[in-house]
Amino acid sequence: MKRLAIIGSGDLGEQIAYHAVHDKQFNVVGFFDDFEPSQSQKYGYPILGSLDDINKNFLDGAFDLLFVAIGYKHFEFRSNIFEKFEDLIPFATIIHSSAYVDESCEIGQGVIIYPGCILDMKVKIESNVLINSGCVIAHDSKIGKHSFLSPGVTMAGFINIGKRVSLGINTTVIDNIDIRDDVRTGGGAVVTKDIELAGLYIGIPAILNKKL
User: Which part of the chain has CATH 2.160.10.10?
Assistant: First the structure.
């Protein structure tokens, strides 16, 4: 079983460690976190060091694969830290055994697909994307790097989601929609037309609430 190290020991790091271990996919060896003392314990796992210690630990053979557990509130850091290491260290892809992922799908590095998700034919998920519990992504849709889907997001076919996009809980996106980079939707939003301006969109249909 591959040994997994996780960047970030907050709530998201705890969730990722839980699914990786309890779904019997990886052996979690610990966390890297700039805000926790090295060699202290969280959730029963050691803090292996700060982010500056990651490369040395990898070269010393402390772990096999890396994963970024940084959430949607810190998108810039989430994307920067992944891109810093993506050409140096392999990233894990975690697909829960209860998820249905069609064999025609393309799944990038550093992706986690939570329990109960459905990914239909020819869906493409780029690197460092989190797809939370119960999401449904229909055929021929694409999600760009570093994006974050909250629980219960439903996407129809032929949708193109940009980079660093956060779709709030129970967001619905109708077919043939393009959503540009750095867009966020509030809970329960229904996207019925292309979104071309970065910002927070809420309501039914979703309208711009705040530019980002």
Answer: 94-203
As a three-state string, the secondary structure of 99-125 is: CEECCCCEECCCCEECCCCEECCCCEE
Provide CATH 3.40.50.20 ranges for the chain.
3-85
pTM higher than 0.85: yes
Active site residues: 139
CA–CA gap between residue 85 and residue 154 (Å, rounded): 31
The sheet carrying 3-7 orders its strands as 41-42, 45-49, 27-32, 3-7, 65-68
- CATH code for the domain defined by 94-203: 2.160.10.10
pLDDT at 39 over 90: no
In this predicted structure, which of 39-43, 55-59, 80-84 has the lowest mean pLDDT? 39-43
pLDDT in tens, 86-114: 999 999 999 999 999 999 999 999 999 99
pLDDT at 211 exceeding the cut of 90: no
Report which of 199, 200, 154 is spatially closest to residue 177, judged by C-alpha positions. 154
In this structure, how many other beta carbons lie within 10 angstroms of the beta carbon of residue 183? 25
